[in-house]
Design brief:
Order of helices and strands: HEEEEEEEEEEEEHEEEEE
Oligomer: single chain
Shape: elongated
Strand content: 35-45%
Length: 312
């Protein structure tokens, strides 16, 4: 009887162990499919009462900025910075014009449902307002985040090498447009892919949009260093450009066929841009295949808080 009971317990244990990974695997697969969603990169906020809405000139002004990675890319550029501005530097001192480095922040992933959050602190020293014959000094405090980010958009497209065939053979799919609404875990998103089949060539119309509410510019240290409020402004040839890093199907890239690209960059006008690409197709068989679009860019977000500096 004891042997039978022992055997039953072992079977129950093994059955439970075998069933758990299946459930976990299904959950992991679901997470892996869903994590590239949303239309934000880094989100910045003033921490409550840091600074308070009223500050006396005898006190230090401590500013805490909370930074949360809302997207699916892990930031890693050493040139990612956050700046404070909007005040007279002869009245508010101690704030570095070079900004402060944004910490590396892991984004969402296959098994991480939420990106990392960190804080950056500034300590300002107000001047004595009486010495300047000022009773109070209103400030609109601006916080500006400048950082590099990436968007990876994927979707399955139907390839029909011979769309006008009169063959009665059943086709596994029909070429059709793909709506990419909901974003891909970044402030720049692929919003739509139009698929136009023809014999030997499938043409793609790919729409890209700035959906994050901030400003986009070419990636790279040079542009990041000119993104802040204390340097020369980003120029016309830098702002509103997205680097199209790659567009590929399994085993090969089609980026060389894409137009119009300026040395690999797509220009956005009023926050939107479109590129046209081609896929050379052979044979007669219709099939589904994944298409992956990789975009790189710099991004700038700005928030503000109204405070008042008072003389004691």
């Amino acid at each position: 009887m004891k042997k039978i009971l022992t055997i039953l317990l072992v079977i129950a244990f093994l059955t439970g162990c075998n069933s758990m990974p299946i459930g976990n695997q299904q959950t992991q697969e679901t997470n892996q499919q869903d994590y590239r969603t949303g239309n934000q990169g880094l989100r910045i906020n003033f921490v409550t009462n840091a600074p308070p809405s009223r500050v006396f000139d005898t006190d230090e002004m401590n500013v805490l900025i909370e930074i949360e990675n809302m997207g699916a890319y892990t930031t890693k550029s050493i040139a990612d910075k956050i700046y404070l501005s909007g005040f007279d530097q002869s009245i508010i001192t101690g704030i570095p014009t070079t900004g402060k480095t944004i910490p590396i922040l892991e984004g969402k992933g296959p098994y991480v449902s939420r990106g990392m959050t960190d804080r950056v602190a500034f300590k300002a020293i107000p001047a004595m307002l009486k010495a300047k014959t000022i009773d109070k000094y209103p400030i609109t405090l601006l916080a500006t985040a400048c950082y590099e980010y990436e968007t990876i958009a994927s979707g399955n497209i139907c390839i029909d090498p011979d769309p006008y065939s009169i063959s009665t053979q059943q086709k596994v799919c029909t070429p059709q447009d793909i709506s990419m609404g909901g974003g891909q875990g970044g402030p720049i998103a692929v919003t739509n892919i139009e698929v136009e089949p023809s014999p030997g060539i499938t043409r793609l119309k790919i729409d890209v949009q700035n959906v994050g509410g901030g400003e986009v510019f070419k990636p790279g240290i040079d542009a990041l260093q000119r993104c802040g409020p204390y340097t020369s402004e980003l120029g016309f040839n830098t702002i509103d450009y997205v680097q199209v890093y790659d567009i590929n199907l399994p085993g090969y890239s089609i980026i060389s066929s894409c137009r119009p690209l300026d040395q690999g960059y797509l220009r956005l006008i009023n926050g939107q841009g479109t590129m046209y690409c081609e896929i050379n197709t052979q044979g007669q068989s219709t099939y589904m295949t994944p298409l992956t679009i990789k975009l790189k860019y710099g991004y700038r977000n700005t928030i503000y808080k109204n405070i008042e500096l008072l003389s004691v």
